[in-house]
Amino acid sequence: MADSDGEYVEDLSDDDLHDHRVAADGTGASYGTRSKAARGTGTQGGRRKARGGGRSKAAWEDIKRSWENVVEAEDGSITIEALLEAEKRRRLMRDTTPLQRGIIRHLMLVLDMSFAMAEKDLLPTRYLLTLNYAVDFVREYFEQNPISQMGIIAMRDGVAVRISDMGGNPAEHIEKLRTWAAQGEPQGNPSLQNALEMCRGALFHTPSHGTREVLIIYGALLSSDPGDIHDTIANLITDRIRVSIVGLSAQVAICAELSPRPSRTPRRRTSPAPAPATTRRC
């Protein structure tokens, strides 16, 4: 039993307070305290109920009934068939397109600077048009392949001449191309074999995780070679070097053997507009 009315009221529950509440209508001053305490306690209880109504759920209330998916097989083993089937469906719906990341390209650009490039079927001349597009190609190549490497070789007077070494600085390659454009007109015969052998030497020490490519801009209908070019083609296949050729004139048989089989369909360029798109696909 509590010693005073105040302590007695505090020990009572909310339901008991409603039963024992006495109105202060003059019947006794001693019961006024109990009535006030009851009203105060009722207000606090309402606040507690309001706070309890918006509380967050406990962790155990959101538990998943994983045991309902457990099925006992005929041999007595326990399997979770629903989960296994869902995992199989996720694997089937997953995109399995093979992606090849981290490729570093190593490209040798070979330009024909023989007498055939002096023709004016592509204005102003094949030679100047090829050099202008080569500058654009170098710039776009390094924009799309910022960590790749490139070297440039010219074919003239029956030999292969190195314009720029293998490197990753586009400004250096562009400067060398513009220097060659100011030196004079194209002359002599081209030599595919000499150019390809020089490309093999430049690509020999490239790492295996990168590609080895040769892109040739060819305008002549002949090739002045010192030996059997078919031996060079066999060496290119052994070294896994891919050769692409953009022909500015009629189709040449040896060029068809050098190019990959899917791209052997001849396409003659009669205007300068499609030339960048041709080199972009290589």
UniProtKB/TrEMBL annotation:
- Region: Disordered, residue numbers: 1-57, 259-282
Superkingdom of the source species: Eukaryota
From the Swiss-Prot or TrEMBL record, state where the protein is found.
Nucleus
Record key words, sorted: DNA damage, DNA repair, Metal-binding, Nucleus, Transcription, Transcription regulation, Zinc, Zinc-finger
> What Gene Ontology terms describe where this protein resides (cellular component)?
transcription factor TFIIH holo complex
This protein's major location comes to: nucleus
Q: Does the keyword Zinc-finger apply?
A: yes
- InterPro entries xref list: Ssl1-like, VWF_A, vWFA_dom_sf
UniProt domain VWFA: residue ranges? 106-258
The GO terms this record gives for MF are: zinc ion binding
Q: Which family does it belong to?
A: Belongs to the GTF2H2 family.
Name of the protein in question: VWFA domain-containing protein
Query: What is the source species?
Result: Thermothielavioides terrestris (strain ATCC 38088 / NRRL 8126) (Thielavia terrestris)
Q: What is the lineage of its organism?
A: Eukaryota, Fungi, Dikarya, Ascomycota, Pezizomycotina
